[in-house]
From TrEMBL:
Keyword Nucleotidyltransferase among record annotations: no
Name of the protein this chain belongs to: CDP-alcohol phosphatidyltransferase family protein
EC number assigned by the record: 2.7.8.-
TM region positions: 21-49, 55-73, 115-133, 153-186
Protein origin, superkingdom: Bacteria
Keywords, sorted A to Z: Membrane, Transferase, Transmembrane, Transmembrane helix
GO molecular function: transferase activity
Amino acid sequence: MPSIYQLKSRFQSILRPLCTLMARSGITANQVTLIAMLGSILMGVWLYLQSDSRLPWLVLPLFLLLRMALNAIDGMLAREFNQQSALGGILNEVGDVVSDAAIYLPFCLVSTQPAWVILAVFLACLTEFMGVLGPSLGAARRYDGPMGKSDRAFVYGGFALLLGFFPAIAVWTSALFAITAGLMLWTCLNRAKGILANQS
């Protein structure tokens, strides 16, 4: 199933010079992972405290792009500069789940039916769980779409941008999260199928 994740290699090529510079400066993959997670928490707190202001919603798409860049960089630092570790793997997977929850739960404050937002955040966590389940069952880490981490950032970031310019579209928040919740359930099924196919 197509996913924005498939563009990752091109994104990494753009970031590689910066990644090399960071490695030479002594910055580690784990430090980048922690910065991305802490930044996400702070972004979420800002959205929570000022959900009625346009500025944090306008900043969110830029932050999500930065977060994707940091996620790509920590992976490159780990793989290409011999920084892979068990701790790094834990921080990477936990950081993704914590960051998603911190950034997307504040959408509850502009939604007419917050339960859809909560369900979508739960399913976002479940998609990541399904992804990491692969290696424990003898398969590869799964990144199947249609609503993986990068896809969520694109959809929710785009909606946040529109929300910043046109606050009245907040009435569509519940519908958006209901649709993406369905797509994330589909994503979980696709990842499960991928794991099972790898074992046959």
